[in-house]
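Work Package 3 (structural annotation) set out to generate three-dimensional models for the target panel prioritized at the project kickoff. During this period the team completed the workflow that converts sequence records into discrete structure tokens, so that structures can be stored uniformly alongside our sequence database. As a representative example, we reproduce one entry of 271 residues exactly as it appears in the project archive.
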Amino acid sequence: MTKSKGVVYVASGSSYIKEAVFSATSFKKHNAEPICLITDRLYPEENLEIFDTILIRPCQYNYIDKLLAIETPYDKTIFLDTDTYVCQDLSDLYGLLDYTEFAIHQADEGYEHIIYEFNGAMPEFNTGVFAFRNTQPVKKLFGDWQASYHRKPEISTDQYHLRWALYNSTIRYSTFSTAYNFITYYPNYTLQKVKVLHGRPQNQLPIIEKDLNHIRHKNGWRRFYYPISHHGIMIYQDLTVPDTLKLIFYLMLNLMKLCKRGILQFIKRLS
């Protein structure tokens, strides 16, 4: 008998297992649902007690392994990449699955891979966080997702293949905002309090979350995040003096690093 809802991670290799433990620990601080780890073997050197269920499956050690999430033991599943940090309750994502079968964050990325078969207006989705019901249409979607890998094996990214599979699917799916998959690898934007951060180095995510979710302005709900040297600058509609000084500090720090890099390259050319 399946459990009603839970979280699934897919991870293989000690570094990814460590990340999964970090992320799962953050999830448990705010959520009571069970957690399943799908991996290639047991890792006795790691503390895996945070996981309620561990499934051992053969892995290919690339993006296609993410599709093992379909082996979830739950009726409603939230999939989380290992490089995530959960800082809020995620029950509303499970609630979304009462009305749809698959939910994911639309990302403004991936358009370097053109799919000529369909309209370029179809976006790509970031697969770091997604929610799904364990239904036959969803299982077919995962099957089509996998088939796309065989159709275009030269493209390794899972997001390209999901884009193709979703476009050709009749499944009921929905998107959710950046609050549920706030990616820190590049500039990002949010109106809501962020619930899941996604990026590396992972130990910086709690620091970024603390600043990002500390609303300091009456009209400061619109917050723009800009990453500099693993740190994040929060830019509000109306910058206060502390915000401005912090922005100047990190810009100067980055400029100094660029100058140092340029000097080193110049010396290297002379030698």
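The first strand starts at residue 3 and ends at 10.
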